Amino acid sequence: MSRTDRADRTVAAPPAAVYGALTDPRALESWLPPEGMRGHVDHWDLRPGGGFRMTLTYLDPTGSPGKTSDATDVVDIGFAALVPPERVVQRAVFTSDDPAYAGTMTMTWHLTPTPTGTKVTITAEDVPPGIDQPTHESGLASSLANLAAYVEARQTSHRQP
After folding, report:
1. How large is the average pLDDT for residues 54-82?
2. Is the peptide bond before 129 cis (omega within 30 degrees of 0)?
3. Cα–Cα distance, 104 to 80 (Å, whole number)
C-alpha cells in the first residue's frame, strides 16, 4: 500500500523567489534540513533527468537513527520536472541497507500565487514504510518553515535601500 504525506505553508514572497530557493543548491542546504539536522549537497545537475545527492546529518542522533548510518540520511534526488515558477517534481531514493526505506518517493512542490505571496504545497507519494508518518509530516512542516524564513529574509534584504 502506498502512502502520501502532505504539508503546505504560505510564504510572503512571489513564486519566482520560492522557485529560486528550490533550485539553488546552497539555498537547499540552508533550508531543506528539518529541525535537528543539517544538510550538504554532494553534487548538483539542475535539469530534468539530472539531480543531486544530499547528505542530512542529525545534530543529535540519540534516539533518531539515520537511514544510511546512525547519524546520517543520504538521499539521491532526481529532477523529474522543473516548471518555473510553478512546480518542481523530485524522485527521492534513500541509501539504506534497510528494506523499509527502499523504493522511490516522489516529492512534488506546487507553488500557487496568493494575494500575500505563494502557497507552497509539498506532496510526498510512495513514502517508504520505514518513515514514520507523523515524524515525516512534522519534518515537512519544519522544512517549509525554514523555506519561508529563508525566502522572506532575502525578500526583505532586497527591499532595503
Report:
1. 89
2. no
3. 12
